[in-house]
Amino acid sequence: MDEASAAADRVRIVRLVEHGFDPSAEVVPFAERVPQAGGIASFVGKVRPGGGVEALELSHYAPLTLAGMEALAEEVLARFPLDGILILHRVGMMRPTEPIVLVAAAARHRRAAIEAVDFAMDHLKSDAWFWKREQRADGWHWIEPREQDHADLARWSATAT
Amino acid sequence: MPIKLVFLGKLADLAGAPERQVAGPLDWSGLLEALDSPLGEALRGERVKLALNGRVLADKTSLSASEGDEIALLPPVSGG
Known about the structure:
Chain A has 161 residues and is α+β, with helices and mostly antiparallel strands. Chain A has four helices and eight strands.
């Protein structure tokens, strides 16, 4: 498959996950579906331990959240020469060290795969339809958007072609 | 069939419930009237968006909802 191949041929797996999942077990079947890829890059985001956080709850709005992730997958496929893209995101209650997000990209060459994962993560972190709250000893706290996330996103518009 | 209001994120705390039913039809001023003060004030904030039947409104003040519709009140996302 070359870059001129129709985007429709490329693998996309996009899911919201309600329960704990094993990221490596998800990458294996994805890899099997992109046998022509020269490399697969993946990123696993976890609930960061420390800071007094006992639990994290991620809520979503079904009509927007999955559709937004699917649109992001299409944007990634349009922007990078990939054989496939995988985006899984947890919703619900999580404990520190549990995985929240898995993004994997398969490409002929490593740069596209690595950059596609970076691009997808910056977009998920800043403009995906998720609302997050943390439980600490004194109760639940809603997490406000971080300026750094918007700065990370701006990296890509500065280099837009 | 009434209009369903869906409150996301901290707006669900302000509303005291994730959902509420209100009688239609409903426009922007009607929605503000239907909500008590902390919610109404939050909704006026420029960072709170509205979705009608799963589509985000470019201009929330153009809201025009009928019986059976679903309106979601969307505070700024925390990110994934």
